[in-house]
């Protein structure tokens, strides 16, 4: 039951005319994200315009009640989960999209769905490049707050590289215009960058100006099946040493490919046993794309690289990659996973360590990821019925994340920290860095009401409960 203060804040929000829900499914679905960790809020407020964000924040601040911004809830790290209760501020209804074709920019509401932004840009021959696999559901506000990546990040960068300016509200309701919708300017520090990747802990993003690029007139997929994981890493190195820049460069290790093949024979994996897979996509003008694909075929001839003959064959290649995430459950019924980033030059060495760890712990360890930018989704699979298996998997994962950072990598390449990875923050950041982040948090949010308990900020969850099972989410 929420405390009296929280109930007073909720009553004040209703009185201010805000759209408040405080029961049933509305609250349950505001309590969790894709991680399926659930903490119940006392209410969900759906903002429909800027002034709703401002009023909700002012009231939460006046009563000192936690308030947690939420886009679509597809996050994987518990970022929008209200671990300290209070109010969830749902931004999904602020979803306008305006395209300015000659500026190659779009102005969009925080709740605009990523794929809808790209679809609108397409009407003008333009493209919004960041394409997280969740793009049919995720919101631009959520993408900005996690600095989301996607398959095309290899060529076009993460969300950060594609946000020109944004409007944010501070926890006390003040409105900040951060950056400008210009190709360039040089007028002091750009506050925009503090709101990208800070997971709704510094302010609430209300809208953003996004960079659009000319929509490529052609795309061509190339698949290769290197004989081993190690051969696949060599192949990526070869690509990186060449003048080619694939828009997409996806890797599946031998374990993952084996599962895809076993689970889905219709995927037609035409590869030797023990092979890994690389799936490239080139985009641009038709002649250039064809030339790039031929060059890739030549470079990776030893791995049997071949370009798709037509759209149907490209679709078959993609089916293999899309099957990766589900197929690995053939190895065990549960997984612990992370999305580390590595310097491209350390990848081979890192995975020697990772697979050794897998052998030592007896935990299967399928890997897939975005080889073009060094961001890998690493997994330890375990059987939930085996006592102590979950703990073993978590311990192994902790060692794996630590090693990635030691080798010059990062705890997360695109999913962010939320509350689930807070304990890894000291692996990557020294005391002075953490202190500087905390000082910034204090400056933006002195009462610590905005999304408390996330990243490295006060209110952390000490004992993380097990995630819920049996919950179906729209993107499942
Ligand atoms: C099937 C699937 C595939 C995925 N693939 C990818 C992928 O390829 N690449 C990738 O990067 N991620 C991926 N993700 C993770 C997820 O989709 C991204 O992290 C996405 O950016 C989250 O957007 P969201 O709108 O769902 O945000 P939410 O989950 O609602 O929130 C995420 C974080 O952003 C904050 N937030 C949300 N909106 C605002 C706002 N307006 N102002 C301030 N803070 C805000 C929240 O408080 C929270 O900390 C995937 C997830 C799923 C389920």
Can you lay out the helices and strands and say which pair or pack?
Elements: H1 4-15, E1 19-21, H2 24-30, E2 43-46, H3 50-63, E3 67-70, E4 87-90, E5 97-100, E6 105-109, H4 114-122, E7 126-127, H5 140-146, H6 153-156, E8 163-169, E9 175-179, H7 192-195, E10 204-211, E11 213-214, E12 218-224, H8 229-241, E13 248-252, H9 254-263, E14 277-284, H10 286-299, E15 306-307, H11 311-322, H12 324-327, E16 334-341, H13 347-361, E17 367-370, E18 375-382, H14 389-406, H15 425-428, H16 431-444
Parallel strand pairs: 2-4, 3-4
Antiparallel strand pairs: 1-2, 5-6, 6-10, 7-11, 8-9, 8-10, 12-14, 12-15, 13-14, 13-17, 16-18, 17-18
Helix pairs in contact: 1-3, 13-14
Gyration radius over CA: 23 Å
* Structural class by SSE content: alpha+beta
Largest sheet at a glance? 7 strands, antiparallel
Estimate what percentage of residues fall within beta strands: 15-25%
Shape descriptor reads globular
Strand tally is 18
Distance between the first and last residues' Cα:
31 Å
Report the uncertain regions: none
Strand order of the largest sheet: 15-12-14-13-17-18-16
Mean pLDDT, all residues:
96
Q: Which small compounds were modeled alongside the protein?
A: flavin-adenine dinucleotide
Given the structure, what is the number of helices? 16
Describe the protein.
The protein is 34% helix and 19% strand. It is α+β, with helices and mostly antiparallel strands and 476 residues long. The strands form four sheets. It has a seven-stranded antiparallel β-sheet with strand order 15-12-14-13-17-18-16, with helices on both faces. A five-stranded antiparallel β-sheet has the order 5-6-10-8-9. A hairpin with a 4-residue loop joins β5 and β6 (105-109). α1 packs antiparallel against α3 and α13 (347-361) runs antiparallel to α14 (389-406). The longest helix has 18 residues, at 389-406. The two termini are 31 Å apart. The relative contact order is 0.12. The mean pLDDT is 96. Bound molecules: flavin-adenine dinucleotide. Flavin-adenine dinucleotide binds at residues 33-34, 68-76, 79-80, 91, 110, 132-134, 138-139, 141-143, 145-146, 148-150, 199-200, 204-205, 414-415, 451, 475.
